[in-house]
Amino acid sequence: MNPDPGGALAQYRRRRDFSRTPEPKGGRVAAGPDGTPSFVVQIHDATAMHFDFRLEVDGVLKSWAVPKGPSADPHDKRLAMPTEDHPLEYRDFEGVIAPGEYGAGTVIVWDEGTYRNLTADRAGREVPFGEALDHGHASFRLDGHKLHGGYSLTRIRGGQGGGREVWLLVKHADGHARAGSTTDPRRARSAHSGHTLRQVAAESAAGNSP
Ligand code: MN
């Protein structure tokens, strides 16, 4: 049974064979106890290494592939390419997607936590987060293990039927900003297990998938 026929996760499910991938199919997951939305950043050693930046919005994880990953330096404008909405359960996914399957490669949870919407209109009123993304600009404060403080996502190309969307993920110049911050994905450690991509791949090959 598809618990969400034709819904936000239709594209996610269409691309995957759940008898062959360890990724979650996704059902209904309750929001956090205080309703604070979550975020997760995964490292995905796929055809091209990239980070997947995901924010919980209206019951799903809105997702962007960020080739170089988030930066704590406000001067870095990181390209962020939207990908299909993912189920909330994906925030815990770490493991290996088999060769030949969509997104084949190893995934680790690099950072996770909660965020707060900082997007306001000209009168200073908060703009609902989903609406802000529809309009192509959202600001938020991350409270993770590695990522902290304000960030913005801004659409710079596409949208409204205008082809492939391109966004930028940029750190706000606040007390959490740091110059010259870059993460080497091959040395980075999981916020879940403390393991690297290589260790997670080795565990999976040994049949000890988490
Ligand atoms: Mn990915």
Keywords:
single chain, mainly beta, 9 strands
| Overall geometric form | globular
- Spans where pLDDT lies below 50 across 5 or more residues: none
How would you state the average pLDDT, rounded?
91
Largest sheet: 8 strands, antiparallel, barrel
Number of strands: 9
List ligands, each type once: manganese (II) ion
Helix content: 10-25%
What Rg, in angstroms, do the CA atoms define? 17 Å
Strand order in the largest sheet = 1-2-3-4-9-8-7-6
Q: State the separation between the terminal residues, measured CA to CA.
A: 26 Å
* Secondary-structure-derived class: mainly beta
What's this entry about, in short?
Helix content is 10%, strand content 35%.
Explain how this protein is built.
With 210 residues, the chain is mostly beta strands. The protein has one domain (5-205). Helix content is 10%, strand content 35%. The protein has helices at 10-14, 129-135, 197-205; strands spanning 38-45, 49-57, 60-66, 78-87, 95-97, 105-117, 137-144, 148-157, 166-171. The chain has an eight-stranded antiparallel beta barrel. A hairpin with a 2-residue loop joins β2 and β3. The longest helix has 9 residues, at 197-205. The two termini are 26 Å apart. The structure holds manganese (II) ion. Manganese (II) ion binds next to β2.
